[in-house]
Task: structure prediction
Amino acid sequence: ETSTRVCSVAVSRDGAVLFHKSDREGPAHATLIGPYLDGALAVIEQQGVPLDAVAVSAGPGSYTGLRIGVSAAKGVCFGRNCPLIAISTLALLADTYRRRSDSRRDCMIRPVMDARRMEVYTALYDVDGNEKEAMSALVVEPQTFEAELSKTPVVFVGNGATKLATLNMGDRAIFQSDIEPLAEQMVTLAEQAFSDGRFVDVAYFEPYYIKDFVATVKKQLIPHN
Result:
Protein backbone atom coordinates (compact mmCIF):
# COMPACT_ATOMS: atom_id res chain seq x y z
CA GLU A 1 0.00 0.00 0.00
CA THR A 2 1.71 3.20 -1.22
CA SER A 3 -1.10 5.60 -2.11
CA THR A 4 -0.25 8.16 0.61
CA ARG A 5 2.85 9.13 2.61
CA VAL A 6 2.53 5.78 4.42
CA CYS A 7 4.32 2.79 2.93
CA SER A 8 3.15 -0.64 4.10
CA VAL A 9 3.39 -4.33 3.23
CA ALA A 10 1.62 -7.30 4.83
CA VAL A 11 1.22 -11.05 4.46
CA SER A 12 -2.01 -12.82 5.37
CA ARG A 13 -3.30 -16.37 5.38
CA ASP A 14 -6.97 -17.29 5.89
CA GLY A 15 -7.75 -13.85 7.30
CA ALA A 16 -4.85 -13.76 9.76
CA VAL A 17 -1.99 -11.28 9.33
CA LEU A 18 1.33 -13.11 9.52
CA PHE A 19 3.58 -10.13 8.81
CA HIS A 20 3.20 -6.40 8.48
CA LYS A 21 5.59 -3.51 8.14
CA SER A 22 4.81 0.17 7.74
CA ASP A 23 6.48 3.57 7.76
CA ARG A 24 4.65 6.86 8.32
CA GLU A 25 7.62 9.19 7.91
CA GLY A 26 7.42 9.13 4.09
CA PRO A 27 7.35 9.57 1.32
CA ALA A 28 10.22 7.09 0.99
CA HIS A 29 8.40 4.33 -0.87
CA ALA A 30 11.14 3.71 -3.44
CA THR A 31 13.65 3.07 -0.63
CA LEU A 32 11.41 1.04 1.66
CA ILE A 33 9.28 -1.13 -0.59
CA GLY A 34 12.14 -3.48 -1.55
CA PRO A 35 13.24 -4.37 2.00
CA TYR A 36 9.61 -4.64 3.13
CA LEU A 37 8.85 -7.10 0.31
CA ASP A 38 12.00 -9.08 1.11
CA GLY A 39 10.76 -9.42 4.69
CA ALA A 40 7.30 -10.49 3.54
CA LEU A 41 8.64 -13.10 1.12
CA ALA A 42 11.00 -14.43 3.78
CA VAL A 43 8.03 -15.04 6.10
CA ILE A 44 6.17 -16.82 3.30
CA GLU A 45 9.12 -19.13 2.69
CA GLN A 46 9.87 -19.75 6.39
CA GLN A 47 6.26 -20.69 7.16
CA GLY A 48 5.68 -22.61 3.95
CA VAL A 49 2.78 -20.38 2.92
CA PRO A 50 1.73 -20.70 -0.73
CA LEU A 51 1.74 -17.36 -2.50
CA ASP A 52 -1.73 -17.39 -4.10
CA ALA A 53 -1.94 -13.72 -5.15
CA VAL A 54 -0.62 -10.23 -4.58
CA ALA A 55 -3.05 -7.43 -3.72
CA VAL A 56 -2.11 -3.80 -4.27
CA SER A 57 -3.86 -0.59 -3.33
CA ALA A 58 -4.66 0.81 -6.76
CA GLY A 59 -5.52 4.42 -6.02
CA PRO A 60 -6.51 7.11 -6.18
CA GLY A 61 -3.66 8.83 -4.39
CA SER A 62 -0.09 9.91 -4.92
CA TYR A 63 0.91 9.50 -8.57
CA THR A 64 4.50 8.54 -7.73
CA GLY A 65 3.54 6.38 -4.76
CA LEU A 66 0.99 4.42 -6.77
CA ARG A 67 3.43 3.75 -9.59
CA ILE A 68 6.03 2.46 -7.13
CA GLY A 69 3.55 0.19 -5.35
CA VAL A 70 1.95 -1.22 -8.49
CA SER A 71 5.34 -1.78 -10.14
CA ALA A 72 6.59 -3.65 -7.07
CA ALA A 73 3.44 -5.77 -6.91
CA LYS A 74 3.75 -6.64 -10.61
CA GLY A 75 7.37 -7.64 -10.07
CA VAL A 76 6.38 -10.16 -7.41
CA CYS A 77 3.55 -11.49 -9.60
CA PHE A 78 5.87 -12.00 -12.57
CA GLY A 79 8.59 -13.53 -10.41
CA ARG A 80 6.30 -15.90 -8.52
CA ASN A 81 3.80 -16.51 -11.34
CA CYS A 82 0.74 -15.44 -9.35
CA PRO A 83 -2.26 -13.21 -10.11
CA LEU A 84 -2.67 -9.54 -9.21
CA ILE A 85 -5.60 -8.07 -7.26
CA ALA A 86 -6.34 -4.33 -7.38
CA ILE A 87 -8.05 -2.78 -4.35
CA SER A 88 -9.51 0.73 -4.51
CA THR A 89 -7.86 2.88 -1.86
CA LEU A 90 -11.24 4.51 -1.18
CA ALA A 91 -12.88 1.11 -0.69
CA LEU A 92 -10.03 0.21 1.68
CA LEU A 93 -10.61 3.33 3.77
CA ALA A 94 -14.34 2.67 3.96
CA ASP A 95 -13.83 -0.98 4.90
CA THR A 96 -11.27 -0.07 7.57
CA TYR A 97 -13.87 2.17 9.21
CA ARG A 98 -16.65 -0.40 8.86
CA ARG A 99 -14.65 -3.00 10.79
CA ARG A 100 -13.79 -0.70 13.70
CA SER A 101 -15.51 -1.62 16.95
CA ASP A 102 -16.74 1.96 17.38
CA SER A 103 -18.09 2.38 13.83
CA ARG A 104 -21.61 3.70 13.40
CA ARG A 105 -24.34 1.70 11.68
CA ASP A 106 -26.73 4.60 11.03
CA CYS A 107 -24.63 6.41 8.46
CA MET A 108 -23.08 6.53 5.01
CA ILE A 109 -19.29 6.34 4.69
CA ARG A 110 -17.44 8.80 2.47
CA PRO A 111 -13.69 8.19 2.21
CA VAL A 112 -11.86 11.39 1.30
CA MET A 113 -8.24 11.59 0.22
CA ASP A 114 -6.52 14.96 0.20
CA ALA A 115 -5.77 16.38 -3.24
CA ARG A 116 -4.82 19.96 -4.02
CA ARG A 117 -6.32 22.96 -2.23
CA MET A 118 -9.98 22.20 -1.40
CA GLU A 119 -10.10 19.14 -3.66
CA VAL A 120 -10.49 15.54 -2.55
CA TYR A 121 -10.69 12.11 -4.14
CA THR A 122 -13.87 10.50 -2.88
CA ALA A 123 -16.60 7.89 -3.28
CA LEU A 124 -19.62 6.88 -1.21
CA TYR A 125 -20.35 3.57 0.54
CA ASP A 126 -23.11 2.24 2.77
CA VAL A 127 -22.41 0.44 6.04
CA ASP A 128 -22.46 -2.92 4.25
CA GLY A 129 -19.63 -1.85 1.95
CA ASN A 130 -21.72 -1.34 -1.18
CA GLU A 131 -20.48 1.46 -3.44
CA LYS A 132 -23.21 4.08 -3.89
CA GLU A 133 -21.18 6.66 -5.77
CA ALA A 134 -18.18 5.98 -7.98
CA MET A 135 -14.80 7.53 -7.24
CA SER A 136 -14.19 11.06 -8.47
CA ALA A 137 -12.24 14.23 -7.74
CA LEU A 138 -14.34 16.98 -6.17
CA VAL A 139 -13.69 20.60 -5.28
CA VAL A 140 -15.42 20.83 -1.91
CA GLU A 141 -17.55 23.71 -0.62
CA PRO A 142 -19.73 23.81 2.52
CA GLN A 143 -22.82 22.83 0.49
CA THR A 144 -21.19 20.05 -1.59
CA PHE A 145 -22.60 17.21 0.53
CA GLU A 146 -25.71 19.05 1.69
CA ALA A 147 -28.17 16.70 -0.04
CA GLU A 148 -26.82 13.48 1.45
CA LEU A 149 -26.32 15.04 4.89
CA SER A 150 -30.00 16.04 4.89
CA LYS A 151 -30.92 12.33 4.73
CA THR A 152 -28.40 10.61 6.99
CA PRO A 153 -25.20 11.14 8.98
CA VAL A 154 -22.07 10.86 6.85
CA VAL A 155 -18.71 9.73 8.21
CA PHE A 156 -15.78 11.27 6.32
CA VAL A 157 -12.73 9.02 6.65
CA GLY A 158 -9.16 9.54 5.50
CA ASN A 159 -6.61 12.33 5.40
CA GLY A 160 -9.00 14.61 3.52
CA ALA A 161 -11.28 14.72 6.56
CA THR A 162 -9.01 17.24 8.30
CA LYS A 163 -9.55 19.69 5.46
CA LEU A 164 -13.32 19.15 5.36
CA ALA A 165 -13.62 19.62 9.12
CA THR A 166 -12.80 23.30 8.59
CA LEU A 167 -16.07 23.73 6.70
CA ASN A 168 -19.39 24.22 8.44
CA MET A 169 -21.31 21.15 7.29
CA GLY A 170 -23.52 20.63 10.33
CA ASP A 171 -23.86 18.06 13.10
CA ARG A 172 -24.45 15.12 10.77
CA ALA A 173 -20.94 15.35 9.35
CA ILE A 174 -18.52 13.18 11.35
CA PHE A 175 -14.79 13.31 10.64
CA GLN A 176 -12.32 10.43 11.10
CA SER A 177 -8.99 11.72 9.84
CA ASP A 178 -7.01 9.08 11.79
CA ILE A 179 -8.02 6.28 9.41
CA GLU A 180 -5.30 5.59 6.87
CA PRO A 181 -4.85 2.99 4.12
CA LEU A 182 -2.65 0.13 5.32
CA ALA A 183 -1.71 -3.17 3.73
CA GLU A 184 -2.67 -5.09 6.87
CA GLN A 185 -6.20 -3.67 6.61
CA MET A 186 -6.52 -4.88 3.01
CA VAL A 187 -6.91 -8.54 3.96
CA THR A 188 -10.72 -8.78 3.95
CA LEU A 189 -11.16 -7.07 0.58
CA ALA A 190 -8.25 -8.94 -0.98
CA GLU A 191 -9.46 -12.37 0.12
CA GLN A 192 -12.99 -11.59 -1.10
CA ALA A 193 -11.61 -10.53 -4.47
CA PHE A 194 -9.55 -13.73 -4.64
CA SER A 195 -12.60 -15.83 -3.80
CA ASP A 196 -14.59 -14.06 -6.53
CA GLY A 197 -11.78 -14.42 -9.07
CA ARG A 198 -11.49 -10.65 -9.53
CA PHE A 199 -7.97 -10.29 -10.90
CA VAL A 200 -6.41 -7.66 -13.17
CA ASP A 201 -3.99 -8.05 -16.05
CA VAL A 202 -0.48 -8.06 -14.58
CA ALA A 203 1.08 -6.60 -17.71
CA TYR A 204 -1.41 -3.86 -18.51
CA PHE A 205 -3.01 -2.75 -15.25
CA GLU A 206 -2.56 0.93 -14.39
CA PRO A 207 -3.44 2.62 -11.06
CA TYR A 208 -6.57 4.74 -10.71
CA TYR A 209 -5.09 8.20 -11.06
CA ILE A 210 -8.47 9.92 -11.74
CA LYS A 211 -6.64 13.07 -12.84
CA ASP A 212 -3.74 13.45 -15.25
CA PHE A 213 -0.35 13.91 -13.61
CA VAL A 214 0.92 17.46 -13.85
CA ALA A 215 4.62 18.13 -13.30
CA THR A 216 5.46 21.49 -11.77
CA VAL A 217 8.72 23.39 -11.65
CA LYS A 218 9.54 25.59 -8.71
CA LYS A 219 9.75 29.19 -9.79
CA GLN A 220 13.09 30.92 -9.33
CA LEU A 221 13.36 34.55 -8.41
CA ILE A 222 15.19 36.59 -11.03
CA PRO A 223 17.15 39.43 -9.46
CA HIS A 224 16.56 42.89 -10.89
CA ASN A 225 19.57 44.67 -12.36
Q: What stands out?
A: The two ends are 50 Å apart (CA to CA). Residues 213-225 have pLDDT under 50 and may be disordered. Strands lie at 7-13, 16-23, 54-57, 84-87, 108-114, 119-125, 131-139, 154-157, 173-176.
